[in-house]
Amino acid sequence: MTDETPGTKGAEDDTEKEGVAGFMARAKEQAQTAGKKMGESGAFEPLEHVAESFAANTMSEGRLFDMADALSDYRLNEVDVTDTTCGYCAVGCRFDIYSKDGEVLGVRPNPEKAPINGISTCVKGKFGYKYADSEDRLTQPLVKEDGEFREASWEEALDRVADGLKEIQDEYGRNGLSLVSSSKTTNEANYLMQKFARQVLRTNNIDNCNRLCHSPTVAGLSQTVGFGAGSVGTDALENTDCYLITGSNTTEAHPVLATRIKQNVKDDDADMFVFDPRKIQMAQFATQYTRIKPGYDTVWINGLIRHVIENDLHDEEFVEERTVGFEEVKEGVEKFTPEYVEEKAGVPPEELKRAAETIAEADSCTFCWTLGLTEHSHGTENIVSMANLALVTGHVGTEKSGLAPFRGQNNVQGGGGDMGPIPGNFPGYQKVTNDDAREKFEEAYGVDHLPDDEGYTITEQFLAADRGEIRGMFIQGENVVYSEPNVSHAGEILDDLEFLAVQDIFLTDSAKHADVVLPANAPVETNGTYTSSTRHVQLVKRAIDPPGNAKPDWVITQELAERFGYEWGFRNPSEIMDEINDLTPIYGGITHERLETEGSIPWPCWDEDHPGTPHLYTEEFNTDDGKAHMFPTDVSGPVEADMEDEAFPLAMTTGRVLYQYHTGTMTNREPGIRSYTDELFVEINPDTAADLGVSDGQVVEITSRKGSITALAQVTERTGGDVVFVPMHYFGRGDVANELTDEEHLDPQAHVPEYKVTDVRVAPTGEGERTEAQKAGAEGDD
Ligand SMILES: Nc1nc2c(c(=O)[nH]1)N[C@H]1C(S)=C(S)[C@@H](COP(=O)(O)OP(=O)(O)OC[C@H]3O[C@@H](n4cnc5c(=O)[nH]c(N)nc54)[C@H](O)[C@@H]3O)O[C@H]1N2
Ligand SMILES: Nc1nc2c(c(=O)[nH]1)N[C@H]1C(S)=C(S)[C@@H](COP(=O)(O)OP(=O)(O)OC[C@H]3O[C@@H](n4cnc5c(=O)[nH]c(N)nc54)[C@H](O)[C@@H]3O)O[C@H]1N2
Ligand code: SF4
Ligand SMILES: [Mo]
């Protein structure tokens, strides 16, 4: 067993380092001491997680980063201070950025302007800025000639993109093209991307990473309660009496929310039930942790509902007055007996009973989930089941009760969903198939006919390109060659396209496949708004100047539209928001002027006089009849589990670690973060490792039906016997988990890939830890 992540370097290496590197070294040293103490008290915790908890808890106090030191070389009036919103994840932390000459010197939360995070931030939001002034930022457009990139003027590059897109449409029709928009960019930039797709290119083939993430949440909640978003504000997360947390590694993926939840559990005795295949850090604080078999969530959730109804613990009045479909659900859950749930999902009956009873009897309960529920070939059914449980127990629509999906990218709620860069929706979830909605946008956009056929989702775009249907793509802020399923195939598909343009802040490995690369501004260089996981729309401001000739995403899209004869004439993001206000009822009253004075406004906010809506569904649900609609769900396991095959005896699940962000374009450029985790690893249970003859720190080969990768074994009891966990991140060299995942078996409604369960086998390669030479040999080129 190890107490360290393989690839984690010792603290002694880092003691000389300053800034982030120094912080990480000190955090780790202190964590080591804390770890020893915990070891002595018999509650040994892997070092990584002590450090993680340590970081999450102490960063807020600012003790580890001495702002005075960072600023001591300057007089305060020489330093710029900008209040802005974090560009990493969707928690939506706000803080002041202190900067000088294009460099971020420090970050300090200002609780008065930070409704969600107060005085807290996590390590990425506080220190993750080296990427912005890194030397390899894109500063000038690039065009490919004879297979090589050369710098080009904006004029030339944009002309080439416009010509490339026009040629494809001339030859293959308007749907021969597809666009990927970016949840890293602002609401205003995403609004323009969907406008560009629909008004200019007349296609609904536009999607974004929301698809790979919470699209089942949007689909499941739209059907049941109405809005494709969480129903609660931060109040419920901080003050509820009970939590059900599943498929969310909260301390690593949403650290600031985790801190809030842990505080409520510790200080106010809130109950917390954690259901997860891995014994994640939240388990340590839980009333009860239940290890589940990945991919069978409908089974245990239906089991909970059955127990609640069977014992008359459901909220009869709420069910009667505010919901429809109870009888169907009651009938549907009958087969999910405790014995059946144990057999299928691995949940012991007494744990099922305790959770069901505590949740049902609690005065309030908040249901929290993330990708462990969504990234399945039946993700939407999981979400419908979760909504059913919340509704049957009557825990929706109060200040302390409700549905809390923790969203992912900084602006996936707003930019990835609300703004409509998705195949079936205009902004504000107005359907492209709805005649009234189409007419409204046709009139606003001054065109006779907008397309009424739903476009392709992101993974379908790749499948359609593979069939030769899509021949050109425009990808904004998405590193698809690492984040899509079955990436080797995705890379080949990009190469086969007749035209590809990529808009990013780096020449990513995806951008290398492009004909034209457009340099964009990074989140810290951007003006506009992001929308948090709790639906709070908040301002983002330029804290440092962008490098070279990089431009704001929205400007690039506007200049591209001009080349097709559309003069939008927006002078700033605030003017774009005015158009959003006019066309998107849920954003009707959210103007930049108001945000400047009010700080943040949770949608729906119907008009300028409306205060915004922190808690949804207090009176009625957002459905035609105002009631919540429950639907029974069935047993739906992972697709590959049905392909019983002894060659692949283990289930691989993939996900995140605290110190990395996705494909690493930002975090891999952070020396402190690199010094912490810089190598792909795989968590293997000690019994499984012993059976396989694998020891900690060894290089193993992991093989699925799609391919093989190597990773360092981390032998740990975090994972159960039949499950291995591989981070989804690209660590800057070597392999990625997505070489093993499958792109064909998508959720039928939301089209999310089954990232959370892939059948694999693991075998030792006979190698010990990688040598420096091997590491260099495996070096990627990102
Ligand atoms: N540090 C960091 N934070 C991030 C990100 C990042 O890259 N790095 N990314 C952001 C983004 S875009 C997102 S979407 C969020 C994601 O946030 P999370 O979804 O919390 O992150 P993951 O690590 O993908 O996995 C979630 C959990 O699902 C569990 N799980 C696996 N299979 C199953 C299953 O079948 N059922 C259940 N119930 N659980 C299962 C895993 O063990 C894990 O604990 O994080 C955001 N925050
Ligand atoms: N196996 C597996 N695969 C997964 C997941 C998983 O759990 N398991 N999770 C999925 C999920 S939830 C997500 S969200 C995706 C994430 O997948 P991606 O979105 O592809 O990951 P990122 O690395 O965040 O890529 C964002 C890109 O945007 C660029 N960028 C950053 N800021 C800006 C900006 O302001 N403007 C522009 N134009 N570009 C910018 C970055 O350099 C980077 O290239 O991965 C998905 N893939
Ligand atoms: S929790 Fe998310 S929003 Fe907050 S500082 Fe960390 S990465 Fe940024
Ligand atoms: Mo995500």
Automatic annotation (TrEMBL):
Keywords: 4Fe-4S, Iron, Iron-sulfur, Metal-binding, Oxidoreductase, Ubiquinone. Gene3D superfamilies: 2.40.40.20, 3.40.50.740, ADC-like domains, Dimethylsulfoxide Reductase, domain 2. CDD domains: MopB_CT_Fdh-Nap-like, MopB_Formate-Dh-H. GO terms for cellular component: membrane. Belongs to the prokaryotic molybdopterin-containing oxidoreductase family. The lineage of its organism: Archaea, Methanobacteriati, Methanobacteriota, Stenosarchaea group, Halobacteria. GO terms for molecular function: 4 iron, 4 sulfur cluster binding; formate dehydrogenase (NAD+) activity; metal ion binding; molybdopterin cofactor binding; NADH dehydrogenase activity. It comes from the Archaea. GO terms for biological process: formate metabolic process; respiratory electron transport chain. Coiled coil: none annotated. It comes from Haladaptatus paucihalophilus DX253. Residues 79-136 form the 4Fe-4S Mo/W bis-MGD-type domain. Residues 1-36, 762-782 are annotated as: Disordered. This is Formate dehydrogenase major subunit. InterPro entries: Asp_de-COase-like_dom_sf (IPR009010), Formate_Dh-H_N (IPR041924), Formate_DH_asu (IPR006478), MoPterin_dinucl-bd_dom (IPR006657), Mopterin_OxRdtase (IPR006656), Mopterin_OxRdtase_4Fe-4S_dom (IPR006963), MopterinOxRdtase_cofactor_BS (IPR027467), Prok_molybdopt-oxidoreductase (IPR050123). NCBIfam families: Fdh-alpha.
